[in-house]
Each structure stands twice: as C-alpha cells, then as structure tokens.
Amino acid sequence: MFVDRISRRAYVELVPLGGFVRSVARLCLVLLLVSSLLNIPAFAATEKPLGLVVQAQEAQLDDAKLAVGTSIYRGDTLVTEAGGGLRVKLGGSQLYLLAESAATLEQNTTAIHAVVARGTVGFSSNGTDSIELQIPQGILRAANGQPAYGQVTILSAQEVVISAYRGGLVLDNDGELHTIPAGKNYRVTMEFDQADQQTSPASTGGDNPIVQPQNRHRRRRLAFYLIFTGAMAGITYAIWDHLSESPSTPQ
After folding, report:
1. With a threshold of 0.85, does the pTM exceed it?
2. In which region does residue 165 sit, left (phi positive, over 0), alpha (psi from -120 to 50) or beta (all else)?
C-alpha cells in the first residue's frame, strides 16, 4: 500500500515534468524555423553577381528597364529593343547586345556563358576571364585563351554570321573545332546528318523476330562561307568601338 502511494505520487510529479519538456521542444522547433526563414534572404544575398551594366539604351532585364550600374546575375535574360544597345562588364571581359537582340547569362566551371536567342551579340575577352556565346551551331569563344573581339548575328535557326574583329575565334561543334581567323567574317549554315539507323531483333515468341530501330543520333553538319561585308563590317566595328568607350569619357 505504501509503495503504491509512492508510485502514484511519482507519476503525478512526472506529468508536469513531461509537459514542460514538450513545451521546451516546441519552443526550440519554433526558434529553429524562424531562424531558417531569417537566413533565406541572407543566402540569396550571398550570390555573387556576374557583372555590371556600363551602358544601356532601350534595354530590359526580365521585362524591367535596365539602367547603368545594374548588377547582372546568373540566369538573367538581357533584351534590347529597336534602336537600343547594351554593354555589360564581366570581370575583365565584356558582353554587348546591339538593337533587337536577346541573350541569357549562365556560368559553368570555366567561363561565363551567354545563350544567344536572337539579334547580334558580341564579346571582348581579355584572355583571362573567359566568356562564351552559345548559338545553334555550337559554342563560340576566343581561340587559345587569347584576347579577342567577336560577334554573332542570328539570321535564322539554321544560319548565323560570325565575325572575328580582333584575335581568332573558335566554334566548338560538339568537339569539332572550327577556327575563325582575325579579320574574317563567315556565314555558317547548319543541317543535321541522320546517323546510320541501327536495328536490333525483338523476340515476339514466333520464328521470325521483329526488327526494331534503336535510338537515332543526330549530328550537326556545318558549312562555312567566307563573306566580305565591306562597309557593313566597318559600321558594325564602329558600333563596337563606341560601345567599348568608357562611360565617363565623352566623345
């Protein structure tokens, strides 16, 4: 009887203690959740910008008007309207868009990557801070890690014009490298080769197996045509030279 009273008393004393422990656990959980929510903006703020807008005219970033001094981040889509132009400083290199152009910036382990959607997009590379242009025909970059100025103009889904103004360029077509020498302009067209269709038998339980095709691999085939743009090349280079001026230096 005495032991039974002690057991009941211990149980009664433990009930409040258990409630206290549960309350503390709930409080810790709430504090943890609040702390994680407060840290979300901090994590977002630690993302390092890829570059900075140094010249902008009739240009937009994800449907918002761009201004000089705007920071550019990975995943941003840059767009210029009719009569517009844009220049972005990316470390020691630069990216520019002429009128009615669009490109989205990405970054891999070796270079800043500009996916060109339309129009005319160019770059200047200092040879250290690598920059690449992705076009339907492949990846365009400076040759041999040397300083270079170059641009592409999208004519259609199958055709572009590549211009190497200073320094050589390399077009990487899935490991197939094509060099664009300095001072040259090429019209590059693209078509796909259909790889030989491979077949494999598929048993149906009968004497004669049904032959089914395996997955096909399509490979880009490029054709290069040297073009002489004459005055047009001079005009385009003059635009690039203008865009390359320091914003603080008057003409």
Report:
1. no
2. alpha
